[in-house]
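Revision sheet: structure tokens.
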Amino acid sequence: MKKSNLITLSILGALVLVAVAAVAFYAGRSTGQGHEDAMPSTMAPTGSEGRKVLYWHDPMVPGPRFDKPGKSPFMDMQLMPMYADSETGAAGGGVSISPSVQQNLGIRLAKVRRADVSSSFDAIGAVQFDERLSVSVQSRVAGFVERLWVRAPMERVRKGQPLATLFAPEWLGPQNELLALQRAGVSPDLIAAARERMQAMSIPADLIRQSEKAGTAQARYVLTAPASGVVAELGVREGVAVTPGMTLFRIAGLEKVWAVAEIPETQAVRLKPGQKVKAVLQADASQSFEGELKEILPEVSTATRTLKARFEVDNAKGQLTPGMLLRLQVIGRRSTRLVVASEAFIRTGKRAVVIVRTDTGAFEPRDVALGIDLGDDIEVLQGLSDGEEVVASGQFLIDSEARLRSVLSGMASPAASTAAAATASASTSSAPSPAAVTSTHHAEGKVESVEPDGITISHGSVATLKWPAMTMGFAKPKPTAFPDIKAGDRVRFGFKEGGPTGYELESVERLQPASKP
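Predicted:
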């Protein structure tokens, strides 16, 4: 008996609390508090974050605007607020993102700045002989090589070093004639004529002096190196016969060498003869050499789109030999350029786009013109100003959002938006709330399955909702509704918005099968 009394008292207490809450609610409505409709027209509505709300809208139907929150008359969803700060960003084609969302998306900003940069770049060059320092040693008389002092190519030689001993029988006659004239005491004119004849036969002056001093003709002559270097070409062997004009040796100088590098044509256009270069040995970075750009060869490789540049490198110590690789640091002119991080650009093939953070805090895409690539940075020729901030990480998400908003805003024409807004305004003013704007829609289809809480129907298009043919589930108004409907039946049905699945059946009528002819 005591337990039943306690239950009765608890129920009475709950009813009293409900009554008190109801009185407070209606008292609030009478004084203009606790409801959106009682908001003074002169006060701007504010959201839960204290931000100024301009209007509410349906994101799927961008045209109509509403002056109060509620359920959308077009879709089964709540209206979304449009804030004043986000409207400012959207007006310029930008996107407004709260700081918390920026942090979650990992958006990172980079500042546009002016930097003192140079057009220097690195290249790899291969060492070659400087062809301007090459000399050839030739035979000017028919004869034989009696002795060969240098027997292998690529041997280093010094200036004046013996190379080979030649025996030239043709030189004996002119020398004996000169010696006979001298002994006969003929006139000086005859002796001078004999000397000129020997010079025409390319008899070396040293050999003539030796024969005059010894009093006998000399047929053996030692060829010496005219310059220091290496024997790049050896054209004879010991004991072979030689003829006038035959190249016996080719000596390449090593005081200076060429470093030939392939330069991309985009960088080669900025090169000028006379630019200084610092060459570092690829195999040993501690060894460096000074050089200078001599010329750019007028030939472009169609496969690699590069030009060959010829650098003259000092090799006084002889440390460089042909075939070695050098890392060339081409020193360009320094200048002040407007640059930004290279990761901030979105390249579309024909243009480059960056996402700029405006003064209002919104983000907007902007086309830019790019200059030279400086590695981590890229020169900006047009489109940005010093001090502006651009998105360096997450710009693809912002660009996609901006494009989506632009497309949605352009989907509804001004006339259609105005008509839709007028219809929605009339609906919201005449009905208690946007949720009350409902109507019955009709369609025909085939029942796929019947459950206690709903029926799945494959139906045709629904003109009133602009739906294509599809299969979807509809809720029953109660579990015992439509007991005669079974899977496989062809039905005509009516439904409205509502229910746990979003749409609830109002009527289901089985269609009679067509009679056979």
